[in-house]
Design a protein that fits this description.
The protein has helices at residues 7-11, 46-59, 79-95, 107-115, 120-124; strands at residues 24-32, 35-44, 66-77, 98-102. It is α/β, with parallel strands linked by helices. A 4-stranded mixed sheet has the order 1-2-3-4. Strand 1 (24-32) and strand 2 form a beta hairpin.
């Protein structure tokens, strides 16, 4: 069972403004029949992370071998985004898929992964920027 965002998170977003915290764009591609690539650009914060969760909930299911979340175009990345990635890992696990997170050259993503003493890199195969 995949944990859902806390009900309090939903109440913090202003009514009628689903992306009240910032602007985020998602592009979903299937480079292979059993691979899902989600390219995220913009801001991943409390207001936008729910949308990322919803997209992954809809798309990650049995029959997928790999889920790649490309965060190279992310300009702001909050703890809400990190929680979305952890939920994505649980979704991928339940679907029998491998999750890979690509931070690319996103300073915002790398900063959060550096600042928070988590074991996320052991959970989701975060690839370092070379």
């Amino acid at each position: 069972m995949v944990p859902q965002p806390r009900p309090a998170d939903h109440q913090l977003t202003a009514p009628g403004r689903p992306n009240a915290g910032g602007h985020m764009s998602l592009r979903v591609r299937r480079p292979g029949s059993r691979t899902l690539l989600v390219e995220v650009t913009g801001e991943v914060d409390l207001g936008t992370a729910r949308r990322l969760d919803a997209v992954l909930q809809d798309l990650v299911h049995g029959g997928i071998d790999a889920v790649v979340i490309d965060l190279a175009g992310v300009t702001f990345f909050s703890v809400a985004g990190l929680n979305s990635l952890l939920r994505a890992q649980l979704l991928a696990d339940s679907a029998g898929a491998r999750l890979t997170v690509e931070s690319g050259r996103s300073r915002a993503v790398r900063r959060l992964f550096t600042l928070l003493p988590t074991d996320f890199d052991t959970v989701a195969n975060v690839r370092p920027v070379s």
